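INPUT
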Amino acid sequence: METSQQLVSQKKYVYMFHEGNAQMKDLLGGKGANLAEMTRLGLPIPQGFTITTEACNAYHANGKQFPDGLKEQVEQALKELERITGKKFGDKENPLLVSVRSGAPVSMPGMMDTILNIGLNDETVEGLAKKTNNRRFALDCYRRLIQMFGNVVLKIDHEKFEKELERVKEIENVQYDQELSEQALSTVVNSFKRLVKQETGRDFPQDPMEQLYMAIKAVFDSWNNKRAIKYREVNKIPHNLGTAANVQVMVFGNMGENSGTGVAFTRNPANGNKELYGEYLMNAQGEDVVAGIRTPLPVSKLKEQNEELYNQFVEICDKLERHYRDMQDIEFTIEEGKLFILQTRTGKRTASAAVKIAVDMVKEGIIDKEEAIMRITPEQVDQLLHPRIDPNAHYEVLAKGLNASPGAASGAVVFDPDSAEKLAKSGKKVILVRPETTPEDIHGIVAAEGVLTSRGGATSHAAVVARGIGKPCVVGCEDIKIDLEKKRFTVGEVVVSEGDIITIDGSTGEVILGAVPLTHPELSEEFKTLLRWADDIRKLGVRANADTPEMAMLAIKFGAEGIGLCRTERMFNAPDRMPIMRAMIIAGSEEERKKQIEKLRPMQKEDFKEMLRIMGDRPMIVRLLDPPLHEFMPSPEELLNEIFVLKEKGKKDDDPEVVERKRLLKRVKELQEINPMLGHRGVRLGMTYPYIYEMQIRALLEAAAEVIKEGIKVNPEIMVPQVVTAQELKWVRKMVDRIKGEVEREYNVKIPLKFGTMMECVRACMRAEDLAKVCDFFSFGTNDLTQATFSFSREDAESKFLPMYTSHGILQHNPFQVLDVKGVGKLMQLAVEWGRKGNPNLEIGICGEHGGEPNSIKFCHAIGLDYVSCSPYRIPIARLVAAQASILEKRGEKLYQEGAD
Amino acid sequence: METSQQLVSQKKYVYMFHEGNAQMKDLLGGKGANLAEMTRLGLPIPQGFTITTEACNAYHANGKQFPDGLKEQVEQALKELERITGKKFGDKENPLLVSVRSGAPVSMPGMMDTILNIGLNDETVEGLAKKTNNRRFALDCYRRLIQMFGNVVLKIDHEKFEKELERVKEIENVQYDQELSEQALSTVVNSFKRLVKQETGRDFPQDPMEQLYMAIKAVFDSWNNKRAIKYREVNKIPHNLGTAANVQVMVFGNMGENSGTGVAFTRNPANGNKELYGEYLMNAQGEDVVAGIRTPLPVSKLKEQNEELYNQFVEICDKLERHYRDMQDIEFTIEEGKLFILQTRTGKRTASAAVKIAVDMVKEGIIDKEEAIMRITPEQVDQLLHPRIDPNAHYEVLAKGLNASPGAASGAVVFDPDSAEKLAKSGKKVILVRPETTPEDIHGIVAAEGVLTSRGGATSHAAVVARGIGKPCVVGCEDIKIDLEKKRFTVGEVVVSEGDIITIDGSTGEVILGAVPLTHPELSEEFKTLLRWADDIRKLGVRANADTPEMAMLAIKFGAEGIGLCRTERMFNAPDRMPIMRAMIIAGSEEERKKQIEKLRPMQKEDFKEMLRIMGDRPMIVRLLDPPLHEFMPSPEELLNEIFVLKEKGKKDDDPEVVERKRLLKRVKELQEINPMLGHRGVRLGMTYPYIYEMQIRALLEAAAEVIKEGIKVNPEIMVPQVVTAQELKWVRKMVDRIKGEVEREYNVKIPLKFGTMMECVRACMRAEDLAKVCDFFSFGTNDLTQATFSFSREDAESKFLPMYTSHGILQHNPFQVLDVKGVGKLMQLAVEWGRKGNPNLEIGICGEHGGEPNSIKFCHAIGLDYVSCSPYRIPIARLVAAQASILEKRGEKLYQEGAD
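OUTPUT
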């Protein structure tokens, strides 16, 4: 024991700021290393010293006793500070005052923060008063010390000090602390001292050394307080890091008219412009700037007041920015005409400023392109792409639902899709409000600025459609009670009628009465530059999921290299197609069904031609029809209700309208499934009703032939959904080859065409090698694949038990949002390996929602996919993240989080 | 060309029977090799020769020309036959007649069969007449030749010959061919010859050699006829095998009273007794025995008629049986007192005969135990285990449904489970007839002899329950219209009322009015012996899926080594438990829910005690509750209907009965799921309502403790359903460990306990290594795993597209019946490998329905599972097949079919 303690006593526990540097974070903590680094740079830092994290650990190991030698080293360091400042700790004439702050190797809220003005007591306070010629100021410093020390070190309830202060303010009849007179502050000091005695049974320590040691112990103790331990557990920070304690000379901005304090950013944090941006106040302390009693001046004004000092500050800012290679947020104080830098840190900034600063810094030679790309987060890109509520706007929230699709929108309330479409055509902005939406509402969703529903979750129809087309959407807003008949909704007492203006924020789920100012997205030149750099660096291709010409154009605008998934459902359930589709479904004979389906061919051919013309020679993957037939039919409830209404009108059972409804009902019931997600859909449906696929394939290939004849190069690709065996794929391929031959002969053109399969069933992954032999590409449909791998029905899981799973830590993320690397990802990895074995030229992509999610994109890069495909609005994110993945890989850094076991 | 033809001409194309043997199947075809083998054994075979499959292939390669040298070799062989028989081919006095038959290396229907009596013409027919002193016989032979030759070789429509024959019979005014006079047959011969001339433009060939060569060509040609090609395609038989042609001397059993013909089995094919069993007729041909004009005599009578010949036959039978090491089915002919063996083949037999013969032959030293085990098919075992309709019974089928659970049963029709139970208790046999069944009908199903439903498929509730408890069941019998109110069902005009007797056959789906004689299963001594041998040989353990004490006892009776799956649903939905469970589900507070659930504990403890006492120290795996809560509730339709009825009775909305129903309805709707198969069930439910699992675990462990205190050793195991992450398993394991500690302290006993997981979700397979670290065993739930791997909802798939998939050859089998080796099996194989890596002592079994399916059992053996678990009624099959798997593995033979790509 003794030996080891003696060994420990040899340790260096105290470092003067000038002895350390930025690399010594583990030993000096983040703050200590930073102060050392700034000192090393020759900046005017109030000097001080750091007590190491090792000292903290030794203290705890030692039953909360300072290790041997620590006190000697602290006293040595204090002497050094006295030498530097010419002041003396505890001196009655010219007292040295210090602050004590904690500082762990990783930033960690929950620990003790700061105690200022250590060194003041009944005697030194008078010395300070004389020296500054300001007794009021000295007393204020003293009462602050007692208050902070009493609360943080002596654990006296903060409220109790506040109460005392209030009492004096009442007597003095003033409102703000600053208005207290010298006399009143003297009263406060005495009352605070009484409070300390009363609460602790001891006087407030008058010995400055005792104050200092007690403060240091409080810092060390705070490492193990409940909040800090909890924070470390949640964030998986080791408990044995320990915290350092920083002791620093106090400087005062309120020592008179040639003192002052301020905060400045080295660039404009709102727009990124290269200009000093900040404010200062003379004869003031930091709190005064915040309190807003006096209006601070823009930092440029300092030039007029003290040009030399201003120039010194500008030079320091520039030095700091170049040193830290990023925009800095700097706190400074002027004490009697002398500039001190108190703190510098990377400055927070808006998304657009982040992009501009990163790109500018590349141009200025401060950072390289890779660094610029790594500095922008996917969340920032997301912010840039959606309208948002102006951060400066004030508003009241009427109701709150689930944030289903990001962005904000204002508009007049409408309650049905037809009105939405009509009003939108007349130039009015509308918000579609529905209990929930169905495929028949799509034209209304497209027409509206945003969608609000009272029912449904993050995967309800409204949410999925809105996300797909990038409209703001709030769902499951149960506070609003919709009365469709009266065309209004109510929230408590508030009634919102058709035509009233509301604003919804799909990023927060908020619903607001009236219009709120919005900020609109812009692809700035800098942003475009950054994404071009990303394109040069990334290996992963980026395509879009796009079903309409509008989305295809948007995708190209955002930089998509092709369409990775064009769903064809819309070509069947658009308002002009639905009646034909239903006639097909209820037809009594195969002949009749074929006849009906063929009616869709010319329509769909035009759809495809439009898309192909837009995409040109970019690849365009068309997925053959996927959903089960009952999705094209009304629900049994709807039909029963219609029959009921007809009967109430006096119609008989043999009335043709009733008969028709009953016939429909019978077919709908036949089509019902117990588990529709695992039902009669995709290629299974295609093989049951081959004329549907036949029609789609022919429509696409004829469209391609006609567009080629227009002189436009095209690259259509056909993708088969829900495949589980090579046999299915062979069956469709045979049909495709036959029709291609026929169309090519008919039009006398060669059509370039690729053929591939969705990988969305587990068996397809298991059979990847054989499937790959029959096709040109795989595209992972990770939405369905996740459902099958987990045996989770997404909608049921998200509403019933997924929240419990993430809150219990069973899963780290909702696997429908963030790809489950260890389960679904492992399956994908096997399928990639086996698929490439079966066909070395196989092209592999992903078209599930995960294709636009950052961690998932990085995983896709890691397992060697050729491209990701996502919603057009996620394209810029995908371009950026794909580049980040390449950079991380090059650097040998970890690419992605693995998630649940 | 010439050179290769010359080389070919060196080949030996013709083999006398005495030149070949059984191993030369590829060259001589099956029939040729067999005839050679019998000749080699010294049996009295009508001699002949075989033209090889190579000759056939050369013929086709050569543009349908005989290869060089073939004719010379045929003529050489004919000479040899003339030498052996003393007859001459084409001789007017003593003509040699031959038959020509095809015979491929594999048995193959669809090819030309036989032409008899080749060598007859207008001249030799008279020689035959003189020689046999029977002109009528000779003419009959001649007209048969023309008819067969005309049809098979000359392709004249069979109908045309029949019409001619009919015409003569009409003129002669006779009904049967045999009644035709000599004169009339002469007329027939002439009319047939005219027909040939008329149809082919050529006379019927009078040259015997020409007849022979044309017949051989016809055999070769038939290899490539449409039916044969189709058959080879379907059965994946290579097209280049070719067929041999067999030319064999004719013998006649109708040459007089010392001629005759017969068929005999070397053992009794009905019961397996070791006795000659068969019939014969003197002065007759094979057809006469079949035609049934004269009654044949039992073969034992032959002894009286011709003891020497009889003894010779007995000796031959014995020789053949020992040679082929199996019971033989032998055709013989006596020509003028001389015995000829025409054919011998393995005799068909009943399942019980098969078992007896196999076991007897081991005892007689003819075969070894492994051979005996390999000779019994799983289908035969299945036959032995269920009552069947007496194969000799005559009956009329009233209606036909799906064969959902094998076996037959007769009983009085009842339409509700309570009546079924009541009547059964009074000793009456009943058949429960329902539109479909629900968990509330279980006591009725248990009480009934069998179940008949008008709706539902092979996986409907009725089907699953009936199979599980081994009751015959016919489902989806849409022909029957059930009127529950009037307690009757109708099939067309037929009305079947409550109490009327019907018989159902769950092996065929047939429904029969009235009682039909049944044969009842018996575990014969031989069968038990065979299964004991199987037990000695197999490596795979065999356990039963058993939920009740009755099933547990049955399982032990059938040889189960433990329970691989005890589902606990019954312990919640039995009639006395259901109200408690429902009260739990609709309870407003967690406290109330816990209170309700705890009411079940003493009941379930008793359930477990009963089971544990029966199982003793055999392992007993208890699966914690799996199904979603809505399965314990009435359906919304039922509740809506009840509310409707109450209102019709004048009850108001605030009537307590109505309020209660509405409250239930609200909860039921909350519990509804879009894809219940992938919903809130298994461990997900267990974690949401932890007190359910807590109660189950405590009930089991208290039961174990109390049974141990009774002096009985027990081995309970706890299994968690629907697991997808190691975290879930850890969560349950923690609960189990805690409760086990509590119970052990309380009772002061040590409880042996294993803890494991179902492997029924794909993600569990992917994470097998991590899961294995947290548990003692895996049990593959291949029903759910197959659904998830294919993304097929079983019920939807079987009713909507699986039949199309198997008929299109996309899949070879319904993967819910036969384990999908290449998909689900591959996943299992990976999980086994990874699981054993995580825990080398891991015990791995299977408890899905596949555990009782032969191909699947063999696959389980191949991937190294420790045991299979299946329905008690499948236990004997599993024991047998597991032994077969061991034997096949030892022999290095293929264990299982791989199925779909």
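end of record. The longest helix of chain A spans residues 590-615.
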